[in-house]
Amino acid sequence: MQSRDVGASFFIKLERGEEVIATLTDFCTRRGMRAGVFQGIGAVERIQIGYYDLGKREYFFRREEGVFEVASMQGNVALVEEKPFIHAHAVLSRCDESLECIGAHIKEAYVAVTLEIHMTPLEASLSRKLDDSIGLKLLNI
Predict the structure, then answer these.
(1) Which residue ranges form the domains of the chain, and what is each CATH number?
(2) CB 91 within 8 A of CB 106
(3) 19: DSSP letter
(4) Which residues lie closer than 8 Å to 117 by C-beta, 6 or more apart?
(5) Which in 1, 54, 88, 127 has the greatest CB count within 10 A?
(6) How far is CA 4 from CA 8, 11, 71, 103, 116, in A?
(7) What distance lies between CA 26 and its chain's CA centroid?
(8) Vertex 23: Cα angle to 61 and 4 (nearest 5)
(9) CB 13: neighbour CB atoms within 10 A?
(10) Model confidence, pTM
(11) What Å distances lie between residue 95 and 59, 66, 70, 110, CA to CA?
(12) Around 125, how many Cα atoms within 13 Å sit in the side-chain half-sphere?
């Protein structure tokens, strides 16, 4: 991973083979980031993508093989138990003639070629708190 300060934000370039969520978590931890937003483009593989089933109160993830263009990735950073927590969603396009798209919550993804992230730290501190009625740690605003 390489990063560069650009005013009040960062450009981050993830390298082939790096796991996206773990690398961004480490980046935020090392900088003491307590809140932020980000967006990204690039290509990933070995992904776990999924959704939250409110009725069952659990996430369901599936693995997808192959390389995907990251058509759009957005997310935020907030604290869970005083540690940065990355919440990311993406629209991914298969790297073949079909260009079939899937999109959802990203649990895990490895950089296939590169992943370019624009991360903007926020001056405030945001945290997540368990909402018992939903079963998720939602932003505590």
Answers:
(1) 2-140 (3.30.1330.80)
(2) no
(3) B
(4) 10, 11, 12, 13, 14, 24, 38, 39, 40, 73
(5) 88
(6) 11, 5, 23, 28, 11
(7) 12
(8) 135
(9) 15
(10) 0.95
(11) 26, 8, 10, 15
(12) 9
Q: Are 141 and 126 in contact (CB under 8 A)?
A: yes
Residue type at position 112: A
Residue 123, exposed/middle/buried by CB under 10 A (0-12, 13-18, 19+)?
Answer: exposed
Name the DSSP class of 95.
S
